[in-house]
């Protein structure tokens, strides 16, 4: 990626990226979600594999956050203000494992091995 594009997307350097991140943080806090909760395991099988490798407690907490967000959305409500302030939308739990899965897949491809799973549209 070019350095110009990286600097444009970096919230520390670009006011537009910082404003987008602030807005996204506000929206995620309203429902008690984290950014990694937005990844869909049915869309990308690497994400599904990364979620399978995570500890059960982390996956259960993710599922509870998603259920709570769906419930709040259906009721047209938000979390109370005191709970919104406790939320940490950009604390990542999936990125490290996802990077490991992508690295392993790239290594398998470089060695000429068959993929572990075939990508199909669900």
TrEMBL record:
It is a peripheral membrane protein. The keyword Protein transport does not apply. Signal peptide: none annotated. It is found in: Mitochondrion inner membrane. Pfam families: UCR_14kD. Keywords: Electron transport, Membrane, Mitochondrion, Mitochondrion inner membrane, Respiratory chain, Transport. The keyword Transport applies. Component of the ubiquinol-cytochrome c oxidoreductase, a multisubunit transmembrane complex that is part of the mitochondrial electron transport chain which drives oxidative phosphorylation. Belongs to the UQCRB/QCR7 family. PANTHER family: CYTOCHROME B-C1 COMPLEX SUBUNIT 7-2-LIKE ISOFORM X1 (PTHR12022:SF9), UBIQUINOL-CYTOCHROME C REDUCTASE COMPLEX 14 KD PROTEIN (PTHR12022). This is Cytochrome b-c1 complex subunit 7. It comes from Hibiscus sabdariffa (roselle).
């Amino acid at each position: 990626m070019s350095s110009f594009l990286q600097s444009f997307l970096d919230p520390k350097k670009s006011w537009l990226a910082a404003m987008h991140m602030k807005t996204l943080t506000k929206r995620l806090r309203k429902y008690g979600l984290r950014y990694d909760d937005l990844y869909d395991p049915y869309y990308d099988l690497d994400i599904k594999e990364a979620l399978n490798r995570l500890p059960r407690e982390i996956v259960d907490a993710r599922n509870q956050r998603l259920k709570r967000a769906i419930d709040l959305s259906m009721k047209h409500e938000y979390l109370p203000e005191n709970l919104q302030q406790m939320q940490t939308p950009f604390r990542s739990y999936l990125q490290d494992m996802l990077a490991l899965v992508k690295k392993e897949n790239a290594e398998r491809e470089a060695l000429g091995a068959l993929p572990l799973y075939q990508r199909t549209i669900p």
